[in-house]
Amino acid sequence: MSRGYRLLVRAYPPGRRRGELLDTFAEAGRARPTAREALNLLRHGLRARLGRPAGRGVVVVATLVALITGFVGAAVASRIAWEFASAYPGGARLEAIEESLFPGLHPSSERTGEGLFHDPLGRSYAEVLLFGHDEDFGFSTILIAPEGSFVKGDYPAWTAETQRRLVAQGWQVGEAEVTGATWIATGEIDDSGRAFSATRGGLALSVQAQTDVVDTPAGSFYATAELDRLTPGWVTAAALPGLLVFGLAGWLITGWASRRTQDARGTVRSLTREPAVLALVLLLPQALLGLTGMALEPFAGGPPVAPFWSLSLTYGFGCGLLGFLLFAVSLITAAVAGRPARVEVSA
Hints:
Helix content: 40-55%
Mean pLDDT: 91
């Protein structure tokens, strides 16, 4: 019997069914599984893991739990992958970017956060585990501005000249857009500034020139630039293994709890089922929004403001924490009060 069959039958829960299948394939003289056999063994084996052969609800629950745990896995994998992304430029490289933007104006830069992310409240890891991040949590950026933040001259001409300098240094520069307040009566923009973006080597620049900033000197305009990092494609790709591994773990854990409680009495079933259902209500929206954000990341066309999982650590933190506590109640009940199913389901 080939190793392929022995690995595939492990999709079934431990028990005699594995041996029965191996005996069946041996008697049929099968040397190695075909693609169709492999898919059938995986499909039936994973379904058998859930127990309750006559029930469809357990399949729905397992699928939803797998989405939630898969989202967690994708977030963890993405977070780890970001640690290996290229750092922001510093020293002479950063000074060259500053001079490209504001030559001769003594520009300076300021980073919004010391690490990969920026939390205005500066919470420690322990505080994040208890309270989550501030609502303005996001990726750290570098703000670049000339001395005094104001530039003398004509902002349309300065914008065009800055674009030419960046193009000469290898930046991919976008078209400048007119900025300003919108007139309610006509819907037209009151031209009071310019904005454009540029990218190069995994970096993104957002440049703005404005005349409607308070205390802008006559004949001058306010100018600033923000330097961000684009999401590397391999960071998004790294989230996929986490999604699959944690999703499979969620399915298997759901199956373990289901098999342990399928013959249990009403109280045990209730203490396993009701907390899990409420946990799904709290966690599923966050998981779906996060997975959608992850899928759309490659098409964003600009730098990320925050990671795709940020909602779960800001606005959704309380619901998420309560949801996982409820899942813990279900699993502890299954572990303590549940018993393995007396009759093994074959498929």
